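2024-03-11 09:14:02 INFO receiving multi-entity request
2024-03-11 09:14:02 INFO entity count = two
2024-03-11 09:14:03 INFO echoing inputs for audit
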Amino acid sequence: MNAATGSGAGARRPKLFDRWLKRRARLDLPLTLAYRQIFILPTRFGWMLGVLMGAMLIGSLNFNNNLGLLTTFIVAATAINSMLLSFRNLNGLRLRHGTARPVHAGQPIAWQLAATNPDARHRAGLILRAADSAARFDVPANGTGKAVLQLPPRHRGWHRPGRLRIETTQPLGLFRAWSWIEPSSPFLVWPKPAEHAPPVPEGGDARHGQRSHAREEGEDFHSLRPWREGDPLHRIAWKASQRHQTLLSRQFRREQSREVFLNLERAPGRDQEERISVLTTWILRADDQGRPWTLELGGKRFGPARSEGHRHACLRALAEL
Amino acid sequence: MKRPHDHLPPGPVAWTVAAFLIAATPHLLAMPPVLGLVVVLTCAWRLVAAQRRWRLPPGWLRLILTLAAIALLAVSYGGLWGRRAATGLLCLMLAAKMLELYRIRDLRMVASVSLFLISAQFLFDEKFVYLVYLFGGVLAVFTALVRIQGVETGHAAPPGGERRFVRDGVFLLLAGLPVALILFVTFPRLAEPLWGLPDEVMDGKTGLSDSMSPGSISELFIDDSPAFRAEFEGSPPPPRQRYWRGPVLWRFDGDTWERSFLPSRTPAVNVPPSRGDLHYTVQLEPQERRWLFALDYPVTAPEQARISLDFQITRRDPVTTLTQYRMRSNPGFTDMPQLPETLRRLALDLPDDRNPRTLEMARDLRERFSDNRALIEHVLDWLREEPFFYSLEAPPLGRNGADEFLFDLRTGYCEYYASAFAVLMRGAGIPTRIVTGYQGGFWQESGQYLLVRNSDAHAWVEVWLDGSGWTRVDPTAAVSPARIQSGARTAAGDMAGLDWLRSLRNRYDRIQHLWNAWVLGFDAERQNRMMRFMGLPGLSSTGMALLMVATLGVVVLLVAWAWLRKPARSSDPVQRAWLRLQRRLRRRGLGPAIGETPLHWAERVAPRLSDGDKLLELAGLYCLIRYGERDESDLAREFIGGCRRLSDRRFAEPQALTGV
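2024-03-11 09:21:47 INFO inference complete, emitting structure
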């Protein structure tokens, strides 16, 4: 099984920073953001305005221009306030849990973070950021909010999102307040389905193999059903059709239980990954075609069954392999 | 970097353009109208482009337009140096930026440089009314920034629409005021400027010039803006003594009177203080000249200024901001009982080939009067009796100015009279010089100060007489006593019937005076005085800075406390009471779990509380009020009271009873 990997942002940072960050505050969810978690620095625009204010200050001071100074000070005071407001926008926010629905390897992952706002104050303009994607979200007053972060596709297996940032530049974009989180709860990535997989192998498992073969020959009649396009002519029960004034097909036992037996040995492929991919495709196809399937994997048997739970269990087993 | 071609939404663009236009308005008005029009049209075009989602013009076109506008600016200002040209250039650059507003960053850039434009405007004018401009402009910029932030965080249309943004802007502005005021009061001021000022005239507002050729002050006479204000300790001097001395002119070349090197460079003799001295504070409006004005004769020079032999007070730097100085004048002083030979020669010098008729008259008078005083008296009588008129509308004079004025024209204002009179006196051998300055002023009864306007500019004559030294003679007063009593424009018959306007203006001037005294005149000296008043005398600028940091820290902490104190108050009193109750119980370890409904919580917790039944009841009430259909305002009061009264004591558990 793959070890959960940290995503870019945290991995490249020096170890010292990592250790300091971890010692400083809890990073795992659930988490209430507070003083120890929140960092704050001016944005690029903030620095620019700072330089501008410096120019305004020196100019006004030199000409002893009091109205110019007053303007400068109003801007400076607002900058200070906007720092407090940025901080406040994160402070007290409760991050409850984060998770992602399982997807196949190679598909983008939608990682969801749930946050609650215990305060009677709308928190707008929050951003959840990973190394190369971001999700904006709001948390209404006394309510909950949800951020959906698109993570890049991963290899099959269990993963953690790695280190993420929750940040905000409210209200003026002068300061960026942010908190690091490193959720420990993993999410699952199923194996990637093979693109050119052979058709689902017919027939049951080794144990029933001979019998089913015999049955195919023996025309083990089971029941009648209305004729469907594609039924071969020799299957039509002419007499019964005459009786019922409608075309009926004879159904044989083998057709009704077109059960699929799957294991790694039956799947073609150069290596294990390819076989797993083919198995994944077969499972999906069997599910699509409405056929129950059995998966035998490393001495464990799943099924036979055909349900969402069964599919998930099989895919999970394949992902963990 | 790839240039994104998706369009910025029109809302933030409109706000940014509006903020820029508000900030630029005074600059645009001072620009050549063509350029102002260019800026406004560019902004209008940008707005329409945002609305219609037009493509912005390509780079080469923008470059050509910008260069053309800058060239036009350079031509109309005669170069790009000087403050007006610099701010004009900034306006044009921002207007050019309008053509390439692509990103959020560009919007923010325009909005924040607009703040710079606002503060730059105060280099030109700091009148009280500009406070409206300051707050209006800053509010517009803040709103624009809030709006831009909305784009960045993806809030296209928030509840409440555009008004919400304005509300946020107002909130930010108001919240910033306490800290801004603290900074304003405590920020250490420079006692001296870091760099010099360009010798540039402010918006065409000139004070007195250092030379005089009849016809030159006339622009000042129409300018009704205040020149300075003076507050007296004790009663003000009577109108006929209110001669505010400015440049003193000695040299005359036939057309122009000018200052002379020697008397204006030599330091003044000491004027001894006396009991009858006038003590007063002058609040001088910026005028971009070095003169300080005082009544005769200044005893001590204000800081950074010196007094010359002919009692001109000049400052080291031009007066570019409102300047206050304290003065003491001894009106009883005799200036120069003995006239040195060099000065006598200077004060008698006349071009020989000018004004033959005046010189003829002077020789004639000299023969008739041996006494200088009698001669002067005679000339003043002559001016009074002959048909001389006082008028602000007088034609410029030709080569023989004094002749033309005294014998033909006979209509003019103080400069004409002073110049002609001085020529006559010098012709008669009496040492004479011309003093320009201000005369009179309006006594603001309610504000207890004297308001001297630029239109009070005046020129008069000083003659040197044996025994009384330099003596003031005002020929204009002989012709038009009203000029001395009530001001130039009244004397010229201008202000008839506009009394109410005048009184309105005087009332406004009072506000302006307070504004000047308390806001604009707040300099290093006043700051020190205030600190002394607050019990911190002799604070150095380092001490001042420390004080500033300390006060600032306290205020910011207070603001932080007010904002970060948890949890924020809900606006609904029922919700508030309920949350407060939850908080109290949470402290006892009985708080609601995440996602627990009020009723579930109450049911879970009630058995462990001594007041459990009441909690259940309250939870029911809460649900009724919050989710019920009827208006439950009477229930609300009961609910709030109940929440307050509920005891958070835990149910007495058996262990506690046994007292182990």
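2024-03-11 09:21:48 INFO post-check: Chain A is about 35% helix and 30% strand.
2024-03-11 09:21:48 INFO post-check: Residues 1-10, 206-218 of chain A have pLDDT under 50 and may be disordered.
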